[in-house]
Amino acid sequence: MTGDLLSVVGLTKAYPGVVANDAVSFAIREGEVHALLGENGAGKSTLVKMIYGLVTPDSGSMTLHGAPYAPAEPRAARSAGVAMVFQHFSLFDAMSVAENVALGMEEPPALRDLATRIRDVSETYGLPLDPFRTVGGLSAGERQRVEIIRCLLQDPKLLIMDEPTSVLTPQEVDILFTTLRKLTAEGVAILYISHKLEEIRALCDHATILRLGKTVGTCIPRETSARAMAEMMVGSAFAAPARADRDLGPVAIEVAGLSLTSPGQFGTALKDISFAVKEGEVLGIGGVAGNGQDELLAALSGEALAVPDAIRLKGAGIGRLGPSERRARGLLTAPEERLGHAAAPDMSLIENTVLTAAARENLMRNGFLKWGAAEAFTRKIIAAFDVRTPGPGTAARALSGGNLQKFVIGREVLQRPEVLVVNQPTWGVDAAAAAAIRQALLDLAANGAAVICISQDLDELMEISDRFCALNEGRLSDIKPAEGLSVEEIGLMMGGSHGMEVAHV
Amino acid sequence: MLRLEKRPQPSQVWTYLTPLLAVVITMIMGAALFAALGKDPVAAITTIFWEPLFGEFAFYYRPQLLIKGAPLVLIAIGLSLGFRAGIWNIGAEGQYIIGALTGAGVGLAFYPMESWVIFPLMVLAGAFGGWIWAMIPAVLKLRFGTNEILVSLMLVYVAEKLLAAMALGLMKNPEGMGFPGSRNLRQYDSAHNAELITGSGMHWGVVAAMIAVIFAYILLNRHILGYHIRLTGQAPRAARFAGVRPARLVLFCLGTSGALAGLAGMFEVAGPAGQVSIDFNVGYGFTAIIVAFLGRLHPVGILLAGLLMALTYIGGELAQSNLGLPAAAIQLFQGMLLFFLLAVDVLTNYRIRLSRPEVA
Amino acid sequence: MEFGSINPVLLLASLMVAATPILLAALGELVVERAGVLNLGVEGMMIIGAICGFAVAVNTGSPVLGFVAAAGGGALLSLLFAILTQFALANQVASGLALTLFGLGLSALLGQGYVGIKPPPIGKLDIPLLGDIPLLGPVLFSHDLMVYFGLTLVVAIWAMLKYSRAGLVLRAVGENHDAAHALGYKVVRIRVLAILFGGACAGLGGAYISLIRVPQWTEGMTAGAGWIALALVVFASWKAGRVLLGAWIFGGVTVLQLNLQAAGIAIPVEYLSMSPYLITILVLVIMSADRSRAPASLGRIFHASQ
């Protein structure tokens, strides 16, 4: 097995009720970009956590450079030359860039020397970064640079990247790829996790495809069509959502000059946002995470209050009304975070139905709750949206991400909203559920509701929106018809390359 | 190695079993403690838990159960509302004292007039006193973002000093030959919180506690406000999304718990205690915290837990006089109960597993 | 008792003494909170330290052994909190309260034989030349060792948090425990160590009250000092240097009101003795507007699920 940097044989890891990885085997060669492809829940994360020493496999073995490799903890992985760029959860907001980098290193030099090295590396690879800035104030793209630099400073032999492009604009993705190609030219192998097929075709030398915890195939992406890979990944084809032609009605919701400071220390302020959505129309709002999506949803849902006329629903200023009053007037919302925001994890589905539907669906009288009616409405949601659950009394946290998301969207859709705002409606949801949710949004619009879909998934937005715009640092771009938009145009609307530059060779 | 594994949803069975398990473990550890103190552990445990209920002098102790249990239940019901919403009123002891002072103050102000309106006025004043004392941490929290735990607790010490000042000054009995303490309200018919049925221990405070239990039960299970309280405690962001106004909830929870604690203090000073004195407060406000948790913040649970805790007070006194068990041992015993309860509570949400040896 | 006059030099000197117990306890809690754990059991750990220190000092005749025992007792009690919150994943607020209630009960039981006894005296560190400087000498250079220990601890903790690797990791755990775990740091182990350190410091603070400040044993003698120490951490915005400043302010208020009492001022004693608690509330009001400095993971339960 010469040339193999890391080979994995029969790795298995089971969690209660689910086998996350079932005898997974594959090998990465030195200096190649190897893709790990699979749907959400296919077991990609568990697999890389085992390679990085965060999770111990139940059985199976790994070899690195021909020697047995079984890291007990990330520290051991790092000293063996394995580094990882995380998708979430690995930066410390209140600390400086240099401190964040130091925390990811085994034996960091003194902070001053480290700062110099950070500047050098960021210069070489085209990732400009000030070592003394506080990480909480950085954009998503800049935060990723911190992670990458943290890895590069340790001269890794294998760099694991978990969904690195989900936080980047198309232009930034190009620059990242240039950096990665430079690294592979220096002999570094990259394990690249993604479910974006075009990216993998552009970047990767080999791909291993996972489905439901098992290796279902390997391919050479450049020689394989995206469609063929998608079929291996998903297992069967899904019907693309059907769009009925529809006539647009009068303006349902209008936002004019909405500016809001963010309550959180590291949030994004909304700056002079204006748009209008007509009845029957779907407005897609794209943008890289952390550019004001959560804040915009909060401003629309009523969790954050604005001046009365900044938001007008059918002509009436509702900027100062709270969530309950807005719901009563027909403006419903579904936030991105399912557990803890859109639903209470430890409460039953029935109780979670009451969360937003109490007043609109007549689930209470004089403040006293009608639990029977609530249960009936919950059953209706479960049936209409094919929510897989043992019953309406099950706690929300016991449902899978996709099923809970179907419940959350179903809860709002079935209340017959006049305006529905959703944020990341299919994030972390399997393809079948995602298709169902998109179809439900389109059906809602076909029946005359105005739909605002905030998402970071450009394919999704292109699929369902009539018009498209993007959030960038709290500002909204111009709004353009979705049909016929090019990737370059979309990228520029999202803010271009945010000052990144191509690697200096 | 033992390993914790999160359950898909909270276990119903363990929700009910954990308090019982905690009581059993505490009894075993308590027996060991008493043995270590050189007392017969079996005798000590039976003296505490059996004698007051079924012993020779049970006819005397059983009413005591209601007298000691009522303030505990009344205060704990109020606290449980806040605890469920993540609003921590730790200063019930202070609100209890102030309720007693305002309640007794109204009574003493009317002395020696006799009228049926005096007692109801005292009840209102007691509730108001506790309410206003709890409004201080509430308003400071909303206006300045101060931590209600620390402020309400500091106010306990302030209330204790105020109590001393009143007992020695303003409210001192002018006919008390210079001894500290107020007039005895038990000798002032219009202000006396007397037993409703002689020898039963049943006074107005017991009635109030029962009403509070029923009120809390309906609130939490049937009313949108109770739902919002539970929601805020479990998922604060979801609560704001649902339209809950956190400020209102802070005012309601702190206000209600303060008013109930004030009521408890008022019923105590006008009845069992009889007068405002320096050592009027005996820690009900703190023990009620244990009661609230032991009752799983559930109204019916709190009722049972309050009676159990009252039993340890009475049995403890009995063990003190019969077996010479130190008073502190009972205090420790109560503290242990809360400890073990919190420790076994993990079983409600997690499963304990023996992890398999690693297969290489 | 001097009537009508308060000697400012003595006032400042006794301020240093009055500040020491809450300074020690607050420094310990500062480290615990920087690690992301809120331990409300400071009062309980202090009173356990007070009785452990007192009992050992009386029985061995050695105040030094007393302080060692106090640190040990405080740490041992905090271990219970660590087990509850880090292994049984119990609510930190409830566990801290349990610790206080339990500690008060246990200390009362342990202290039964010690009421009314005098502890062995502790020599003051009379620094020959410096101690003779007028004004500054008695204020700064004529105290017992623990006062200087407290001051040293302020500097040590400040330097540890700011410059050392251990301090960086501790802050990281308090800031984002999921990220720290993902990088391979042992979140639970680090937090348990921080909790034990906090317990030991609280124990020392308690023993300082029973062995030096009062010095004798009475039930519940810490009288809220542990809670004031908790408030002090908020006041200090989680910075070691400002804990010292805060401790001196509280020490000053305590000493001043005692002096006013002794001076026989017209206000009843009960009202004067409210002042430390009222000042605490006032300080909380002033300082709480800016909560941005609080460690982001403070009070949150950590369970490495996957």
From TrEMBL, chain A:
Matching InterPro entries, A to Z?
AAA+_ATPase, ABC_carbohydrate_import_ATPase, ABC_transporter-like_ATP-bd, ABC_transporter-like_CS, P-loop_NTPase
Q: Which UniProt keywords apply?
A: ATP-binding, Cell membrane, Membrane, Nucleotide-binding, Repeat, Sugar transport, Translocase, Transport
The listed locations are: Cell membrane
Q: Which GO terms describe its cellular component?
A: plasma membrane
Keyword Nucleus attributed: no
List GO molecular-function terms, semicolon-separated.
ATP binding; ATP hydrolysis activity
Q: Which residues form the ABC transporter domain?
A: 6-237, 253-498
Q: What is this protein called?
A: Nucleoside ABC transporter ATP-binding protein
**Originating organism:** Roseovarius lutimaris
TrEMBL record, chain B:
Record field: transmembrane? 13-35, 67-87, 94-111, 117-140, 149-171, 202-220, 249-267, 328-347
Protein keywords: Cell membrane, Membrane, Transmembrane, Transmembrane helix
InterPro entries for the chain: ABC_transp_permease
| UniProt GO molecular function | transmembrane transporter activity
Gene Ontology cellular-component terms for this entry are: plasma membrane
Q: Where in the cell is it found?
A: Cell membrane
Membrane topology per the entry is: Multi-pass membrane protein
Q: Which Pfam families match?
A: BPD_transp_2
What name does UniProt use for this protein? Answer: Nucleoside ABC transporter membrane protein
Source organism per entry reads Roseovarius lutimaris
TrEMBL record, chain C:
Question: Which key words tag this protein in UniProt?
Answer: Cell membrane, Membrane, Transmembrane, Transmembrane helix
Q: Name one Pfam family in it.
A: BPD_transp_2
The protein's name in its UniProt record: Nucleoside ABC transporter membrane protein
Q: Which domain of life is it from?
A: Bacteria
State the PANTHER family in the record. ABC TRANSPORTER PERMEASE PROTEIN, SUGAR ABC TRANSPORTER INTEGRAL MEMBRANE PROTEIN-RELATED
The Gene Ontology terms for molecular function here are: transmembrane transporter activity
Q: State the membrane topology.
A: Multi-pass membrane protein
What's a GO cellular component annotated to this UniProt protein?
plasma membrane
Query: Where in the cell is the protein located?
Result: Cell membrane
Coiled-coil blocks: none
What species is given as this protein's source?
Answer: Roseovarius lutimaris
Tell me where the transmembrane regions lie: 6-25, 37-58, 64-84, 96-115, 135-161, 192-214, 220-238, 245-265, 271-289
